[in-house]
Design a protein that fits this description.
With 184 residues, the protein is an alpha+beta fold. The strands form three sheets. A six-stranded mixed beta sheet has the order 6-10-9-8-5-7. Strands 1-2 form a two-stranded antiparallel sheet. Helix content is 29%, strand content 30%. The chain is flat and about 70 Å long.
């Protein structure tokens, strides 16, 4: 079961059909299914149905800090394309690396391994420079260049202790390649 850290009913309203609609706010652990929570509440108390779902935060990304598409359009077309000013755009668009680093173990790979990784090959033990974080066999990890650029999300073939000791052999297999040849 996932953890619910905060639950508050904001509004109760009786409908024409005799049902009660409830608006509520939840702070929960990643992976919690709000639709399932609404279903469980309805099954236990016969008082709710999910009419609308709005995510207002994920990690440190909050709706209150979001930008509208209009603001993004202006930053791109009016500032960057017309004037060459990239500051407003950089304020709005954060590199994916910033978020991946917070969520997954990081594996720093040798620059000589990057080219084969971006073509979907496995990472062998000699291509590993540094391991940051702990993981088990089968866990997802992020493979980064020495310059802190995300290459791919990979699956650990062994746990972190075993891989640290390896001198040869497969260590990680690709799940999703992020970097392409043009960005390397």
């Amino acid at each position: 079961k996932k953890h619910i850290y905060f639950f508050k009913a904001l509004k109760k309203e009786r409908t024409k059909t005799g049902k009660t609609d409830i608006a509520f706010k939840v702070k929960c652990e990643a992976g919690t299914y709000i639709r399932a929570l609404a279903r469980d509440i309805s099954n236990n108390y016969s008082i709710c149905r999910l009419m609308n779902l709005r995510r207002i935060a994920v990690g440190d990304m909050k709706e209150s800090k979001a930008f509208t598409l209009e603001e993004l359009k202006k930053a791109y077309f009016d500032e960057y394309k017309k004037k060459g000013n990239e500051k407003p755009l950089r304020k709005m668009i954060k590199p994916v690396e910033k978020y991946v680093e917070k969520e997954m173990p990081i594996i720093i790979v040798d620059k000589n391994a990057v080219n084969s990784l971006i073509h979907g090959h496995v990472l062998y033990a000699p291509g590993i420079i540094k391991i940051k974080g702990k993981f088990k066999k089968g866990d997802s990890v992020a493979l980064f260049t020495e310059k802190n650029r995300l290459v791919e999300i990979a699956e650990a073939v062994e746990d972190h202790k075993t891989i640290k000791k390896m001198k040869k052999g497969r260590a990680f297999k690709p799940i999703r390649v992020i970097m392409d040849e043009d960005s390397y």
